[in-house]
């Protein structure tokens, strides 16, 4: 299911262009338009889910798949030896600005912890 006014659903349907790095039946990954690191990729379910808070037991396989896709992209982008970070922002305090579940994959520089 796609949500009509959702930015990332429009990327899934191709109505808005994106620099896609991976796609399969269930998952899409594309480069963040405002990268916070030399490598910044978003991994999303093609199905519209508002956020991690909307994920249910039926999405167990999907969520595992998203993690494994992130790992493969990290490897393909050459981040294996140096390491990287995956982040899912949830809700207002989490800093989520796009209401379609997405996992950030960030790497290519040393990342500070904790985030601000
Ligand atoms: P978040 O703040 O966790 O909701 O992350 C949303 C991310 O989507 C931000 O890092 C934005 O830079 C990114 N973003 C917004 N619009 C686009 C777009 N059209 N293509 C790619 N990334 C986008
Ligand atoms: Zn959506």
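^ Assign residues to that structure.
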């Amino acid at each position: 299911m796609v949500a009509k006014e959702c930015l990332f659903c429009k990327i899934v349907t191709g109505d808005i262009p994106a620099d896609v790095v991976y796609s399969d039946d269930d998952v899409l990954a594309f480069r963040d338009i405002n990268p916070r690191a030399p490598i910044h990729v978003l991994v999303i379910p093609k199905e519209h889910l508002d956020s991690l808070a909307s994920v249910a037991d039926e999405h167990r396989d999907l969520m595992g798949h998203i993690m494994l896709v992130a790992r493969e992209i990290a490897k393909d982008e050459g981040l294996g030896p140096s390491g990287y970070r995956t982040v899912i922002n949830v809700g207002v305090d989490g800093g989520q600005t796009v209401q379609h579940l997405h996992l950030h994959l960030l790497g290519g520089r040393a990342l500070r912890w904790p985030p601000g």
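Helices lie at 7-13, 60-76, 91-94.
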